[in-house]
């Protein structure tokens, strides 16, 4: 059997899993995540695993789109490198738009990178062209926009004890946020940075007022102060804000983030695995961000994005926001210094926890 035949994809499937959360989570208050799981198997039985997700909405359409793409472009087709496969899939959306298609591509793209890495017997970061390094992780989980100051202080100090050198609070865009920010700033050591996330809650006038209020606390960045599609608003805010502006988790790839780079509208960009269309496009975003001097801090999933960080020096931070982590079997963790290094096993190193599929699988017939 030739090397090409050994690498050919002989089986491919896409499934929907529904993962309930313990309660309302994050600034958006989601209570469940629909996870789209893709598996690719080659002729030698090597399996690449990928996933995407829908936060707070149904993933059925995404799963159907992924299954259709697998049938049309992966099975019984010439096996391509992950970037070549990504381009093949993305070009099929020319008349439908990115939307659901990018969320589906994300799962296939991640599975293809996992399989490609395993076929070449190397960890994902090496397959991406990187080298191992330690990357700082900031604490983001457990904060809320209506949280009492004492509770925010307690959570922030927990992160400090874990080794984190930065924490990110959730804001609503009002004076209560400043009271909470003051309490946390007073309690933290001087070397611990504070970020803030507004989750698109403000208009331009409110965002300007809020950024000025935060300046007294040397906020490291202010995340998503405006709706994600308000490029003009971000440009106007960034031009005069005393606090660096971050955005990106709701944008679908470089085509949507390009105007933010061109207008110097953000200092930090935060690609999300699902929304940006997978690791291939996240890598492209990171490369262009580096050209513009914009830092990259991917949206959660640090055990995955540590591979991207090793391949792109523009990635400066990883986010500790444990959302999907209970689905994985012992993913790589940050160390006592609040930093993370990638695993050295072939692939991305994320394996499903025992029993996860049995518990969360959703039949498309139900």
Overview of this protein structure:
The chain has 14 helices and 13 strands. The chain is of the alpha/beta class and 366 residues long. The chain has a 6-stranded parallel sheet with strand order 5-6-7-8-9-10. Strands 3-2-1-13 form a 4-stranded antiparallel sheet. Strands 11-4-12 form a 3-stranded mixed sheet. Helix 7 links the parallel strand 5 and strand 6. Helix 2 crosses helix 4, helix 3 packs antiparallel against helix 4 and helix 6 packs parallel to helix 7.
> Major β-sheet, in short?
6 strands, parallel
Distance between the termini: 41 Å
What's the β-strand tally? 13
Helical content stands at 25-40%
Radius of gyration: 20 Å
The first-level CATH class name of the largest domain: Alpha Beta
Shape: globular
CATH architecture classification of the largest domain: Alpha-Beta Barrel
Structural class: alpha/beta
Order of helices and strands: HEEEHHHHEHEHEHEHEHEHHEHEEHE
Strands side by side in the biggest sheet: 5-6-7-8-9-10
The oligomerization state is: single chain
The tally of domains stands at 2
- CATH third-tier fold name of the largest domain: TIM Barrel
Q: Which range does the strand content fall in?
A: 15-25%
CATH homologous superfamily grouping of the largest domain: Enolase-like C-terminal domain
Mean pLDDT: 95
Number of helices: 14
Low-pLDDT windows of residues = none
């Amino acid at each position: 059997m030739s090397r090409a035949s050994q690498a050919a994809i002989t089986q491919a499937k896409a499934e929907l899993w529904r993962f309930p959360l313990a309660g309302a989570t994050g600034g958006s208050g989601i209570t469940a995540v629909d996870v789209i799981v893709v598996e690719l198997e080659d002729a030698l039985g090597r399996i690449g695993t990928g996933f995407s997700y829908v936060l707070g909405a149904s993933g059925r359409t995404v799963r159907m789109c992924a299954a259709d793409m697998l049938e049309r472009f992966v099975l019984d087709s010439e096996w391509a490198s992950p970037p070549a496969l990504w381009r093949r899939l993305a070009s099929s959306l020319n008349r439908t738009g990115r939307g659901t298609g990018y969320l589906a591509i994300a799962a296939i793209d991640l599975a293809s990178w996992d399989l490609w890495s395993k076929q070449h017997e190397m960890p994902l970061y090496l397959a991406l062209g990187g080298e191992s390094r330690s990357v700082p992780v900031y604490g983001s989980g457990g904060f809320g926009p209506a949280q009492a100051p004492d509770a925010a202080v307690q959570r922030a100090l927990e992160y400090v004890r874990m080794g984190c050198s930065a924490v990110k609070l959730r804001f609503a865009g009002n004076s209560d946020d400043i009271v909470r920010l003051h309490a946390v700033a007073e309690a933290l050591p001087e070397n611990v940075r504070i970020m803030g996330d507004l989750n698109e809650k403000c208009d331009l006038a409110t965002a300007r007022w809020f950024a000025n209020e935060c300046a007294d606390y040397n906020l490291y960045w202010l995340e998503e102060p405006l709706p994600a599609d308000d490029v003009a608003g971000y440009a106007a805010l960034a031009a005069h804000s005393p606090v660096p502006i971050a955005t990106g988790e709701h944008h679908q790839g470089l085509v949507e983030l390009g105007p933010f780079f061109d207008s110097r509208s953000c200092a930090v960009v935060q690609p999300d695995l699902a929304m940006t269309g997978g690791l291939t496009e996240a890598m492209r975003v990171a490369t262009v961000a580096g050209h513009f001097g914009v830092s990259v801090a991917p949206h959660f999933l640090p055990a995955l994005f540590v591979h991207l960080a090793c391949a792109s020096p523009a990635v400066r931070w990883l986010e500790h926001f444990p959302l999907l982590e209970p689905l994985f079997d012992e993913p790589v963790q940050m160390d006592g210094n609040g930093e993370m290094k990638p695993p050295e096993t072939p692939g991305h190193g994320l394996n499903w926890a025992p029993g996860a599929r049995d518990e969360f699988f959703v039949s498309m017939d139900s």
